[in-house]
Write a structure and sequence with these properties.
Blueprint (H helix, E strand, L loop, with lengths): L1 E4 L5 E6 L4 E12 L1 H4 L8 E8 L8 E3 L17 E7 L5 E7 L2 E9 L5 E9 L5 E8 L2 E5 L2 E4 L4 E5 L7 E5 L2 E7 L3 E7 L1
Antiparallel strand pairs: 1-2, 2-3, 3-4, 5-10, 6-7, 7-8, 8-9, 9-16, 10-15, 11-12, 12-13, 13-16, 14-15
Length: about 190
């Protein structure tokens, strides 16, 4: 279950409702929906622009880890994950909502000034201890400066709102991950 969100600024994204995270972003026209309805349908919509994949793994955005080195689990058993839809603001921009580990989460995504990418703010009410938010997974992740990270082969950048948020780069199963301890509010930009 996914929702593609368009903007008048021609920066768009797709949000994975089953896992609580944006999975791709792109610039240009919005979607080609013909495969969804032509003949018998059965196809998926396709972005009409250069797509930047943010993740191709079906795993929750938030995970409870015994230590910061514990592997991210693909199993949702025990997470209590429950999508709670989305709410539209006065401009029609959605904020996605879900529950996980007993906490209510609001995930708000907006277009950055000058259409440089998107900004994501994850707000967690009463977060349980030892929760982490996974921001990126790639073959390579490097810290460029305090709070700024290059993802993949300079595919995109992540800029944390709070450079002191405690972001961690770690190696898991041959891939790099950028994770951060869950706080009441975590914000970052995806610049592509």
């Amino acid at each position: 279950h996914a929702v593609s969100v368009g903007s008048p600024a021609n920066v768009h994204y797709t949000y994975d409702m089953d896992n609580g995270l944006p999975v791709q972003v792109w610039r240009g026209e919005f979607l080609n929906t013909t495969p969804m309805w032509h003949d018998r349908g059965g196809g998926s919509s396709r972005p009409r622009g250069a797509v930047q994949i943010l993740t191709n793994q079906s795993m929750q955005a938030i995970e409870k880890l015994a230590t910061k080195e514990t592997a991210w689990s693909g199993d949702t058993t025990g997470t209590g994950y429950r999508p709670n839809g989305y709410a539209l603001d006065e401009t029609g921009k959605p904020s996605f909502r879900y529950h996980i580990y007993g906490a209510a989460v609001t995930d708000d995504i907006s277009v950055l000034p000058e259409n440089q990418g998107i900004h994501r703010t994850v707000t967690v009410e009463q977060p349980a201890s030892a929760l982490y938010l996974r921001i990126a997974v790639a073959d390579n992740i490097e810290q460029v400066s305090r709070g700024l990270y290059v993802i993949g082969d300079k595919s995109y950048y992540v800029k944390m709102d709070d450079a002191k948020a405690g972001a961690i780069i770690r190696n898991q199963n041959g891939r790099m991950e950028l994770i951060v301890p869950v706080q009441a509010k975590t914000g970052y930009a995806v610049i592509f």
